[in-house]
Amino acid sequence: MSNSFSELYERVVSTVQRRKQARRMAKMARSSGFQMKKKRAALRRRDPAKIKTIARKKALTIVRNKFFPTYNEMTFQQKVKSDQLLMAKYGKKIDAIAKKQEKIIAKGEAERIAKAREALQNET
To answer: What whole-number distance in Å separates Cα of residue 54 and Cα of residue 41?
Structure first.
């Protein structure tokens, strides 16, 4: 059974599972193997599914900041409620912004990779 990136990324998990994942990832992020994995990934071009996911997150953030400027200070329940409201009211607008962001991110890939290579050269 092969799951696509977006299916895995967008699956719904409970708050307890999310916290458990966060603890596990925080521990993994400190390991040297994971750091190297991130550096190697920065040197490669992102696939279209990854670009689409990043564009959607960016579009959602843009709309959130416009309609809920204090989103970061909200409680978890308030965030859930505001996200549901945003998706119901502005879902199509978010999709349109995401489509534009996809093109912007795809254009910036070469520059991002060049910066990562330069950082790697300066590091060694």
So the answer is: 15
- For residue 3, is pLDDT > 70? no
10-44 pLDDT, tens per residue? Answer: 678 888 999 999 999 999 999 999 999 999 999 99
Exposure string for 2-40, b = 16+ CB within 10 A, e = fewer: eeeeeeeeeeeeeeeeeeeeeeeeeeeeeeeeeeeeeee
How large a percentage of the chain has pLDDT more than 90? 81
Among 39, 62, 60, 36, smallest CA distance to 115 is for: 39
Cβ atoms 105, 54 nearer than 8 A: yes
First to last CA, the chain: 41
CA distance 83 to 111: 32
